[in-house]
């Protein structure tokens, strides 16, 4: 099970490293704040995965508590980023171009992250590892955020609804805030 935990984290790391490159190219081409923001989310997910690999490599309650706090900070950063980005995009009325590459990548990322999140939840439960379970929730948020960005990109491309993505960002920021409170209360 421990090897499975490492494999899930390494898959997440690899996906997100490639994702940063793909998202940067797509964001520049479409002048999309949503795609740029999703690239930053991928960077946070990389950080959370590195924390879990570090925690899985050692033992002890103190190490787990530090790892959980680090993941909590990643959630807090994600929530703050989503609030700021969504507000700026909404208030500025920024209209990005259409992005077929962004639509394709976020669709694939939605599927990949939701699958990885489920695997981390099962493996974390089997190992009784709260850090892996918590990082699985970070991956779940990454998958949901990918779906929200995808919906925003598709609605912008098909309906001209440029404001759909920032509204979804507020919902996700709220969820991330709930996770931050739960992590720091436990």
Structure keywords:
mainly alpha, 6 helices
What is the number of helices? 6
| Strand portion | under 5%
Class of secondary structure makeup: mainly alpha
Please count the beta strands (DSSP E, at least 2 residues each): 0
Q: What is the oligomer described by this structure?
A: single chain
The domain count comes to 1
Family: Belongs to the TMEM163 family.
Membrane topology: Multi-pass membrane protein
InterPro entries: Cation_efflux_TM (IPR058533), Cation_efflux_TMD_sf (IPR027469), Tmem163 (IPR026765)
Keywords: Cytoplasmic vesicle, Endosome, Membrane, Synapse, Transmembrane, Transmembrane helix, Zinc
Brief write-up:
It holds the Pfam family Cation_efflux. This protein has helices at 2-30, 33-56, 61-92, 100-127, 130-159, 164-185.
């Amino acid at each position: 099970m421990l090897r499975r935990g490492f494999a899930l984290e390494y898959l997440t790391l690899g996906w997100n490293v490639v994702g940063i490159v793909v998202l940067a190219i797509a964001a520049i081409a479409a002048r999309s704040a949503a795609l740029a923001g999703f690239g930053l989310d991928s960077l946070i997910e990389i950080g959370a995965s590195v924390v879990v690999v570090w925690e899985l490599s050692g033992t002890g309650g103190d190490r787990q508590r530090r790892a959980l706090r680090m993941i909590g900070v990643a959630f807090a950063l994600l929530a703050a980023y989503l609030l700021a980005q969504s507000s700026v995009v909404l208030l500025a009325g920024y209209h990005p171009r259409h992005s077929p590459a962004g639509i394709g990548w976020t669709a694939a990322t939605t599927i990949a992250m939701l699958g990885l999140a489920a695997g981390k939840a099962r493996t974390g439960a089997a190992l009784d590892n709260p850090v892996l379970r918590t990082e699985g929730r970070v991956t779940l948020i990454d998958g949901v955020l990918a779906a929200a960005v995808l919906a925003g990109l598709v609605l912008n491309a098909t309906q001209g609804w440029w404001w759909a993505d920032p509204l979804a960002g507020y919902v996700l920021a709220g969820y991330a805030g709930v996770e931050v409170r739960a992590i720091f209360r436990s």
